[in-house]
Recover the amino acids of this structure.
């Protein structure tokens, strides 16, 4: 789903994207200047390897996503949220969805069998 920046105003635009067993939904709204605020949620599940035993296990997703999207290069330093830069005046929600899933997959995970194991460094 691609949304032209000029179409994003003060009235939130709702979106829903699904890929396999994962759903990304929420809204995008104009914030200020060339910034747009995405308030979303990712839910579902996927198989991930345990970082202790390497056995795959079902991982439940229930993540709140709050990011800013900049139409062009972001020059500010005052925002507390993550800023995604778009260079073609189009917000590509599929790209944001894919990026957020990849970030989630990089998290450290333990399966239920390894949850109580202490790792010495």
């Amino acid at each position: 789903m691609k949304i032209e920046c000029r179409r994003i105003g003060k009235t939130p635009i709702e979106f829903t994207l699904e890929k396999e067993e994962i759903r990304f939904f929420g809204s995008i709204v104009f914030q200020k200047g060339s910034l747009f605020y995405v308030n979303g949620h990712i839910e579902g599940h996927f198989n991930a390897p345990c970082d202790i035993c390497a056995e795959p296990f079902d991982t439940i997703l229930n993540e709140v996503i709050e990011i800013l999207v900049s139409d062009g290069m972001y020059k500010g330093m005052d925002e507390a949220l993550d800023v995604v830069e778009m260079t073609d005046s189009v917000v590509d929600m599929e790209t944001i969805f894919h990026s957020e899933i990849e970030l989630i997959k990089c998290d450290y995970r333990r399966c239920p069998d390894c949850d109580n194991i202490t790792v010495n460094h």
